[in-house]
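Q: I'm writing up a methods section and want to include an example of the input and output format. Could you take the sequence below and give the corresponding predicted structure tokens, formatted cleanly so I can copy it straight into the document?
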Amino acid sequence: MTKKLLFILGLAVFTTQTQAADWYPSSNITQKNSIEFEPLQCPTIGKDYSQMIGQLQSLQDSIKKDANCGQLAKNLENIGLLAGDRRNTFLDAVEKLRNDENLSDSDMKKKVIDYAEDITVAAGSLGVMLAEGDQCFGDKDPVTALTALSSFVNEASTLLSGIGGPWGSALAITGKVSAGFLTGISKFIESRPGYKFYDKKDWQGYVETLCAFHEQQEAINALIHPEQAIDQLNHLNQELQKHLELLENKLPKSTLLIQKFKDHDNEGLRQISSEINTSTDSNIGITMVQLLAAQRWLEVRMTTIIKEADDPLAPSKYLVQKYRDEIEEFMVDRQGPAFINFQEKETQKALRDLDSFVLQEGHMIYRQIRSFELKEEPTIPQRPHNPYLNSLYPSNQEILEKILNVDESEFFNKSEWGTQLASSIIYFKRELRQKWDAVNITNGTKKSFCMFFERAGYLNIQLRNSCYSSRGRKQDLQIKDWQQMGLLKFTPVYLSRSNHRFKGNTWSETLGHWVNSL
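A: Here is the clean output for your methods example:
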């Protein structure tokens, strides 16, 4: 059990110490109106709060009633308290920031930063106690419940990363936190032979750990190559300054707008940017505010990196580099292809289930509809023993065309048999959609991670072979065939959304793309 606990301990030390900007424009300045870019996002898993709380309570119930375990129970109770009203306040504040609403410095610190730090410190200290306190548990294995600890930490860190870019509040994860995260994950993978993806908890554990690791890449690279990171940010800052100076010389009120930004004058900034937009019949006023906000974000990032580089207590670059490479070798090189292959097998199974369902259930209903339409004597159709050998057996396309285009209400109350047939049609359509969902979602998960591996620069030869295998190409053709048979309209919309908005792997790279597009 101790080895498994290291996984939770590794995630628990992944804290989100952050730094707030002095000020950020209000919702009156619609910053996101003309921003089309955002960094590549790992397809991480959303957290269900009730499940998180249930896991926490399960863990608490499994602790022995022993004096030596009292502190462990108390620390766990503190996690529960933090997960109550303070979590709701944190989520409300994050939602305001996502909607470009302004938060005061005190609210930013109290509602966002302090919560993130407190929940991760509490989870981190509890993780240490759990790793050393096997005697506090009975026969009941608490590993499942332990995922609640990482769930709260990952929720906070994921939400913070989403609002911490150039056009969000200037939040920066420190290098020490990244190094601590790497250390914990490295300890976990040293003793792990690999993930059992057929186990839902293992599957979820892999995805969450992979995505958390990816989110740290910019901070890790800044730790190992601080000079390179500063050079990149300085170059971006120079490009931003060129655009600002160009607009300042071109637009009469731009100097006043810049001053309003420096003075933290929200109302004045809104008024001046609106006047510039009106006079130029464009969004150039908003673009100037975006440039100024991006410049402020760069300043915060550079300050953080310089401080880490000059700190004599900063973690050893050697250890950070070693841990990073070992984790990537395990999570990407070794487990990545296995994860993709598992998803491919799941897709194949879903396709077989769909085909069998249409051939068996669909054929029976098809024959019943034909008999009803021809006013034949009602019979109880038998399942064909081997429909593939029957030349008179209708094709999948014929079956679907007949059932999907029929109105089951036509059969209600026409006879007892007709009412039963209508119910069978309703069942078939519902079950068909569910099986089609299974095909699309399993295949969509594979494709989303293949896209992630490719755009994140992780696509080695093994991953490339897994993502673009001959079996995968055959599955794509099968799915296309089913779509042409009438199932395309049942495909979830989110699976067909374009990912063109993702530019760059980090906020720095994305900011560079945006500057070049101006």
